[in-house]
Design goal:
Number of helices: 9
CATH superfamily: P-loop containing nucleotide triphosphate hydrolases
Keywords: Kinase, Transferase
Strand content: 5-15%
Protein name: Deoxynucleoside kinase
Radius of gyration: 17 Å
CATH architecture: 3-Layer(aba) Sandwich
Distance between the termini: 14 Å
CATH topology: Rossmann fold
Oligomer: single chain
Mean pLDDT: 91
Number of domains: 1
Organism: Sporanaerobium hydrogeniformans
Strand order of the largest sheet: 2-3-1-4-5
Structural class: alpha/beta
CATH class: Alpha Beta
Number of strands: 5
């Protein structure tokens, strides 16, 4: 069994992955955030610095490399949880390209590299995840939870438009572009798995029910 957890920034992917890892007694591959040297620069750079140093493109390459490493290990072991995955990475690159933060040439190079990596995954014993948990929620919930977790570089008011652009297109990406596995949608406006044990148990039950249907 391989589960991936996806969704908008701030909605609790790492907490969900930890909950699932504990429940299924399996390893969790977390998104590389705390030790990512480019991420704070991506969030705090001026437009001039972005154009000069190409932080968005470098960040996408950094994440692509780390997610490729994680999914290879996860697919070999065939019993893991991924906190975001290589499948989702393309959506962030696409949005940054549309915003002019990644050039068309950079986006093409990124896409060719991603395609090459995906071809490599086809050679592994297990080809794809069994299910993605898609965490969705209102934009107000997204902002509230970003503020609550308190990463200083994520809190600047100038980032709200960027978050809104990501949020607006996420459902479309899941419905039209994600084809690797079954999807279970979890409405994070309705669940607080960190503060409520009852909510956590209910989400686990939903996951188990969905997996049972997949196995049939």
């Amino acid at each position: 069994m391989l589960l991936v957890v996806g969704g908008m920034i701030g909605l609790g992917k790492s907490s969900m992955a930890a909950l699932l890892g504990k429940h299924f007694n399996t390893e969790v591959f977390y998104e590389n955030v705390d030790n990512n040297p480019i991420l704070p620069l991506f969030y705090t750079a001026t437009d001039e610095e972005i154009q000069k140093y190409r932080y968005p493109f470098l960040l996408q390459l950094h994440f692509l490399n780390s997610r490729f490493r994680s999914i290879k290990r996860a697919l070999y072991d065939d019993n893991n949880i991924l906190d975001r995955s290589i499948y989702e990475d393309w959506y962030f690159a696409k949005v940054n390209n549309e915003l002019g933060r990644i050039s068309d040439l950079e986006f093409r190079i990124y896409g060719e590299l991603l395609d090459n990596m995906m071809e490599e995954l086809k050679e592994l014993p297990k080809k794809a995840p069994d299910m993605m948990l898609y965490l969705k929620g209102s934009f107000e919930t997204v902002l509230d939870r970003i503020m609550a977790r308190g990463r200083s570089y994520e809190l600047d008011n100038s980032l709200v438009d960027y978050y809104k652009r990501l949020w607006l297109g996420y459902d479309e990406w899941v419905m039209k572009h994600y084809h690797a596995s079954e999807v279970l949608i979890i409405d994070m406006d309705c669940y607080d798995i960190v503060s409520s044990q009852e909510d956590a148990k209910e989400v686990i039950a939903l996951v188990e029910q969905k997996l049972e249907k997949i196995r049939q």
